[in-house]
């Protein structure tokens, strides 16, 4: 991506109102999580034994969130989904961090979790570990800040399933951010935990029914359709759960750190 145009939005009143409503719903959801954490103790919740591989209390928090979403938010916080038949191949856009050779068979994801006593030792995951998580397929729009968008069918694992199954943020209140970096560290994305745990945020390994190609981010990329394409990091090499807002390649170059739609 070379010197993209800054967006020049001309929001009408209705759009501004919708955005305000969306933000206050999101604030409400955040407050809901905060009060649950205060009531039960987030640390207690996330350190309970696993039930069938999932941290059941965190699962319950997510379920409660799901119910809150259903009852009060309808689908307002979900990106629109499209029929599978609308999916097209996106252009290849952005090759930062993809230029060094990659042996996909040797690729491993390095993950630094966060515990109550501080950052956890780095753990290593294979693609098979990610593919062992429930496979989720969705057809959503990829929107680039350059002004184009395309409907794509994605398949992968929910980031939230990855976090709960492998107990990566056992003190999630202490790790409100996630940092995702390419193996060569040339492209990097910061995400707030709320967005990372969103049900449509996927660690994605398939595009339009085929394994990801190298240009589109093989073996593993992020897809998070409530955010612009700049956050959809291709070829993830490492993930860290952090206390402080992590560096973000395009935020450092003047784009909004959240880059939400
Ligand atoms: N590693 C890496 N990931 C990246 C980029 C990049 O330059 N390097 N560009 C981003 C941008 S700006 C967009 S719009 C999408 C495009 O994804 P695509 O090439 O699959 O269409 O990838 C995102 N992920
Ligand atoms: Mo983009």
UniProtKB/TrEMBL annotation:
Coiled coil: none annotated. Residues 101-250 form the Oxidoreductase molybdopterin-binding domain. InterPro entries: OxRdtase_Mopterin-bd_dom (IPR000572), OxRdtase_Mopterin-bd_sf (IPR036374). Pfam families: Oxidored_molyb (PF00174). Residues 1-20 are annotated as: Disordered. Residues 1-10 have a biased composition (Pro residues). It comes from the Bacteria. This is Molybdopterin-dependent oxidoreductase. It comes from Hymenobacter citatus.
């Amino acid at each position: 991506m070379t010197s993209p145009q800054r967006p020049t939005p001309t929001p009408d009143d209705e759009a501004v109102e919708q955005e305000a409503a969306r933000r206050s719903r999101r604030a409400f959801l955040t407050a809901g999580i905060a009060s649950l954490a205060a009531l039960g103790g987030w640390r207690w919740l996330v350190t309970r034994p696993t039930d069938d591989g999932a941290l059941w209390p965190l699962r319950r928090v997510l379920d409660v969130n799901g119910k809150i979403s259903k009852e009060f938010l309808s689908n307002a916080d979900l990106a629109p989904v499209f029929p599978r038949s609308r999916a097209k191949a996106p252009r290849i856009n952005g090759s930062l961090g993809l230029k060094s050779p990659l042996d996909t068979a040797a690729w491993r994801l390095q993950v630094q979790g966060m515990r109550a006593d501080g950052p956890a030792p780095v753990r290593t995951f294979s693609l098979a570990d990610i593919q062992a998580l429930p496979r989720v397929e969705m057809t959503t729009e990829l929107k680039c800040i350059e002004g184009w968008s395309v409907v794509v069918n994605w398949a992968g694992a929910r980031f939230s399933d990855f976090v709960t199954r492998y107990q990566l943020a056992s003190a999630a209140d202490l790790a409100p951010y996630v940092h995702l970096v390419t193996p060569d560290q040339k492209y990097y994305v910061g995400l707030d935990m709320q967005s990372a745990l969103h049900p449509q945020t996927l660690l994605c390994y398939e595009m339009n029914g085929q394994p990801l190609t190298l240009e589109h981010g093989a073996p593993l990329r992020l897809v998070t359709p409530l955010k612009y394409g700049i956050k959809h990091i291709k070829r993830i090499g490492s993930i860290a759960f952090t206390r402080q807002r992590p560096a973000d390649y395009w935020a450092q170059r003047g784009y909004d750190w959240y880059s939400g739609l």
